[in-house]
Design goal:
By secondary structure, the protein is α/β, with parallel strands linked by helices. Helix content is 35%, strand content 16%. The strands form 2 sheets. The protein has a 7-stranded mixed beta sheet, sandwiched between helices. Strands 8-9-11-10 form a 4-stranded antiparallel beta sheet, covered by helices on one side. Strand 2, helix 5 and strand 3 form a beta-alpha-beta unit. Helix 6 runs parallel beside helix 7 and helix 10 runs parallel beside helix 12. The longest helix is centred in the last third of the chain and has 23 residues. The structure holds 4'-deoxy-4'-aminopyridoxal-5'-phosphate (PMP). The site of 4'-deoxy-4'-aminopyridoxal-5'-phosphate has 12 residues, from loops.
């Protein structure tokens, strides 16, 4: 991948802001360089702008060098950075599967970038030819999501690899739900495809949606571009500290995932027994897409009973569907109890 031909010229030539904490590296005891208040420890100091301690831990866990990791304010930040790095507003476009996670389109709209949707087939699989046909000379990125939100399935791997091989621009594989999946991650293919960007997040299996921390894994060169354009101290110290403590608890996270996978099976089987449920789609994620008789009516009924699910009735290929997150055994019991009374 000749990155220079894909990055917007203003970004390629950008001289990034140089923060006090990135200019001085090393040991010192008196910091008079960043106009901080010397009192009020422990949060009077700016955080590490490149979050090396967190990245080192993630690197060990994932087997990806720390220089190939970008940390963002949720995975929503790297999604936005992909547009800002690669897409000239009003000129360039991206191609994405449909239906999928809504922020790809919102970020396209904010950045005035054309968003081309390619429908999944009836089994929610991606048609690589249809994606490749939607690409033209102004296509700068392709977004796929596996396991996909809201359909819950993992995409066919061979099709995603075909896209990676046939399109020279950035291919984003969003793996927000990978920890719940029976399929392997695409991280192992980073060395094979210089145009691959894999997104993961602390918001799902890691139980840390509140700290807003997302990960992008890519070539060193792509990560350098993201680092150039991000806000200087995008990840605050509280978030970095919490992430470090969670990374020490990988065993706990595994236990949660085990429980949630068991609950996913139980919830799917109990839901499919209800007469109002037409179909429970197979899921590789921590939620179920469920087709019911009248999705909006069921949604309203559940709200009245204090249970909030996501109504996906108006989404492509999801007519009549609710998206239901797998909760604790007790939460799932309350959901089934309420739905049984319908
Ligand atoms: N990608 C997908 C597929 C998602 O479903 C979500 C959240 N719903 C995100 C990314 C955003 O995650 P984060 O909280 O890391 O911004």
């Amino acid at each position: 991948m000749d990155l220079k031909t894909w990055v917007r010229p203003n970004i390629w030539n950008l001289k990034p802001y140089s923060s006090a904490r990135s200019e001085f590296k090393g040991e010192a005891s008196v910091f008079l360089d960043a106009n901080e208040n010397p009192y009020n420890a422990p949060y009077n100091r700016y955080p590490d702008p490149l979050q090396w301690a967190v990245k080192e831990k993630i690197s060990q866990l994932k087997g990806v060098p720390a220089e190939q990791i970008f940390l963002g304010v949720g995975s929503d930040e790297p999604i936005d950075l992909i547009y800002r790095a690669f897409c000239e507003p009003g000129i360039d476009n991206v191609v994405a599967i449909d239906p999928t996670y809504g922020m790809y389109q919102v970020c396209a709209d904010i950045n005035n970038v054309e968003y081309r949707k390619v429908s999944l087939d009836n089994e929610f699989n991606v048609d690589a030819d249809a994606v490749l046909n939607a690409i033209d000379t102004h296509t700068k990125a392709v977004f796929v999501c596996s396991p996909n939100n809201p359909t819950g399935n993992s995409l066919n791997r061979a099709a995603v690899e075909r896209i990676l091989k046939s399109f020279a621009g950035v291919v984003v594989v969003d793996e927000a739900y990978i920890d719940f999946s029976s399929q392997p991650t695409f991280l192992h293919l980073l060395n094979e495809y210089a145009n691959l960007v894999v997104l993961q997040t602390f918001s799902k299996a890691w139980g840390s949606a509140g700290i807003r921390l997302g990960m992008a894994f890519a070539s060193r060169e792509i990560i350098e571009i993201f680092n150039k354009i991000k806000y200087p101290y995008n990840i605050n110290k509280l978030t970095q500290e919490h992430a470090l403590s969670m990374l020490e608890k990988a065993g706990q996270v595994k236990e949660w995932v085990t429980i949630l996978l068991q609950e996913r099976v139980r919830l799917a089987s109990e839901l499919s027994r209800l007469s109002i449920v037409k179909k429970v789609y197979p899921s590789d994620a921590n939620f179920l897409l469920v087709k019911v008789d009248d999705a909006s009516a069921v949604y309203r009924y559940l709200v009245e009973n204090g249970i909030i699910v996501r109504n996906r009735n108006n989404i492509t290929l999801c007519m009549g569907c609710l998206r239901i997150t797998v909760g604790t055994p007790e939460e799932n019991r309350l959901l089934i109890e309420a739905m049984t009374k319908l």
